[in-house]
Amino acid sequence: MTPFERGLLDLLPRLRRFARSLAIHPADADDLCQVALEKALKAEAQWEPGTRLDSWMYRIMRNCWIDEVRARKRRAETFVPEEDGLAVGDADDRRIEARVELGNVDRAMAALPPEQREIIALILVGGLAYKEAAELLDLPMGTVTSRLVRGRQALMEMLGEAA
Amino acid sequence: MTEEQIIAYVDGELGPIEALRFERAIEADPAMAAEVERHRRLRALVAGHFARLADEPLPERLKVLLDSNVVAFPAKRKSWLGQSGRYGALAASLVAGLVAGQLLPLGPSAPIAEKNGAVVAQGDLAEALDSWLASAPQGGAYRIGVSFRSGDNRYCRTFTGKSGAGIGCHDDSGWTLERFVAGVPAGSGGAYRQAGSASAAVLAAAQEMMVGDPFDAAAERAARARGWR
Question: Is the pTM here over 0.90, yes or no?
Answer without folding.
Answer: no
